[in-house]
UniProtKB/TrEMBL annotation:
<dbReference type="InterPro" id="IPR019734">
    <property type="entry name" value="TPR_rpt"/>
</dbReference>
<keyword id="KW-0808">Transferase</keyword>
<dbReference type="Pfam" id="PF13469">
    <property type="entry name" value="Sulfotransfer_3"/>
</dbReference>
<protein>
    <recommendedName>
        <fullName>Sulfotransferase</fullName>
    </recommendedName>
</protein>
<dbReference type="GO" id="GO:0008476">
    <property type="term" value="F:protein-tyrosine sulfotransferase activity"/>
</dbReference>
<dbReference type="InterPro" id="IPR026634">
    <property type="entry name" value="TPST-like"/>
</dbReference>
<dbReference type="InterPro" id="IPR011990">
    <property type="entry name" value="TPR-like_helical_dom_sf"/>
</dbReference>
<dbReference type="InterPro" id="IPR027417">
    <property type="entry name" value="P-loop_NTPase"/>
</dbReference>
């Protein structure tokens, strides 16, 4: 006789084949409620639910996997990974601390704990773990990269240890070696050794460019799609079709390293704002519509879709990540490509676009290792190409959205922090509070390259950062301004 839960397995297969999110969710929930004996398959189901943004089901599934494995350390490590991916870094850190030193291996465990500790602002704890990681795995680029981001190493003996590890680093795979060169570049920059810094960053970028080539044609096509099919009045007409409250999210976009994390931190210091992160949730709505263009949205609606359901999907996935309470800052790195979709389905969501001096932005992007890979950032002329596309996007959305889109010049925010902070807060529909003017005192996890900077008061350190490297940046200057 077939076990009753086998029917739910078949329902799950059918739902996945039909790309039926609700059906897949119902089938997984039924399997969990029935305590189906799926063993190792629970880990696969957990990953499936995580990728689709259904974190409640993902966490239930990983708990079922851990239970099936009788709490084995390797299974608990799988839960640590899922918690990290779900943004639950404190839980991940606490669980990782309970694992034996060899899970997943001594270097890997120390590296994981070092990363989560740094994200939580525990710098000395992070450095201790990361030094343990390179002790167990000499030359390991990922650990050196995180160590380099833990603050200035100008007068720290860790720097000399890093340089002495070069031979071991050169025996690592190219991706890890690239991370090592980014770490060395940061060390030289801390020391004011500008030529050596640029050379190291360039070596890392060259390795990554081989691994992740940049397609100018592909980027141009994506930018065109993002602006296509949004004639005057189109977004406003769709907004009138939205019948649910969509004021919870606050979108902060702009180029990477342009001050978006600073604005996120300012807003997250308000009592009505629960948190913020690079959420990457809009792509789920884009999958539902079949694209980000106005034409894709219109075709989806003509086929029976609704603005209310699209907005509801985004808000549901946000609640999966952060719970139901408080407003949330979404600073997804490429939100400029989803702005038409976001403004159409979430009419009450404030939109903020950060602008920084192009040369400072270019240098900051070139010297930053982006964990998810940003192919245009590995070459100065590619950076110029991408920046020009983003300039076109900004001009387009300023014309289409008007005052709904607040453009914040980073230099002006730094020079007049109180007036610009008040303006940002007002634009986002928030009342005046003292906390937003002391954002550096807010204790929260920040999982971006700016995690340490935003824990300091607003300062001018981010202005004119490219000046010492100007001679090296001429290819960008010629391509962008020429």
């Amino acid at each position: 006789m077939t076990a009753p839960w086998m029917t739910d397995v078949e329902k799950l297969r059918q739902a996945l084949a039909a790309k039926d999110r609700a059906g897949a969710n119902d089938a997984v929930a039924a399997l969990l409620d029935a305590k189906a004996p799926l063993g190792q398959q629970w880990r696969q189901i957990a990953e499936l639910m995580r990728v689709s943004g259904e974190l409640t089901l993902a966490l239930r599934a990983i708990d079922a996997f851990v239970a099936a494995a009788k709490g084995a350390p390797a299974a608990r490590y799988s839960k640590v990974v899922l918690l990290t991916q779900a943004g639950r870094l404190r839980e991940a850190h606490e669980l990782a601390e309970t694992l034996p030193a060899h899970i997943p291996d001594p270097a890997g465990r120390a590296y994981l704990l070092g990363n989560t500790a740094l994200t939580l602002g525990r710098v000395e704890e992070a450095r201790a773990y990361l030094l343990t990681a390179v002790k167990h795995r000499p030359g390991w680029g990922p650990a050196w990269l995180t160590l380099s981001s833990s603050g200035s190493l100008k007068d720290n003996p860790i720097g000399e240890q890093m340089l002495a590890d070069r031979a071991a680093a050169e025996r690592q795979p190219e991706g890890d070696l690239a991370r090592y060169w980014y770490a060395v570049g940061k060390l030289h920059a801390d020391r004011g050794e500008h030529d050596d810094a640029f050379a190291a960053f360039a070596q890392g970028a060259a390795l990554l460019r081989k691994l992740t080539p940049y397609s100018r044609q592909g980027n141009e096509k994506a930018a065109h799609a993002a602006m296509s099919g949004f004639p005057a009045g189109f977004i406003e007409e769709l907004n009138r079709q939205q019948g649910i409250d969509t004021s919870r999210p606050i979108f902060v976009t702009g180029l990477p390293r342009s001050g978006t994390t600073l604005v996120e931190q300012i807003l997250a210091s308000h009592s009505r704002v629960a948190d913020g992160a690079e959420l990457n949730l809009l792509h789920h709505a884009a999958v539902a519509t079949g694209g980000v263009s106005g034409e894709a949205i219109a075709q989806h609606l003509a086929a029976g879709g609704s603005i209310e359901k699209l907005g509801g999907l985004y808000l549901h996935l946000m609640a999966e990540r952060f719970g139901p309470e408080g407003r949330i800052v979404d600073k997804t790195i490429d939100a400029s490509r989803f702005l038409g979709l976001a403004s159409s389905i979430l009419p009450e969501a404030p939109l903020v676009w950060m602008r920084r001096d192009p040369l400072d932005s270019a240098w900051s992007c070139f010297r930053t290792f982006f964990i998810h890979g940003v192919a245009w950032s590995y070459d100065l002329t590619d950076i110029a190409h991408h920046f020009m596309l983003e300039d076109r996007l900004l001009s387009f959305w300023q014309e289409r959205l008007g005052e709904r889109l607040l453009v914040v010049p980073y230099a002006e925010l730094v020079d007049a922090p109180e007036s610009w902070t008040a303006r940002i807060v007002k634009h986002c529909g928030l009342g005046e509070e003292a906390g937003v003017y002391a954002h550096h005192e807010t204790d929260r996890a920040v999982a971006t390259a700016s995690s340490l900077q935003v824990r300091r008061p607003i300062n001018r350190d981010g202005l004119n950062v490219a000046a010492p490297y100007r001679k090296h940046l001429q290819p960008f200057i010629d391509a962008y301004r020429g």
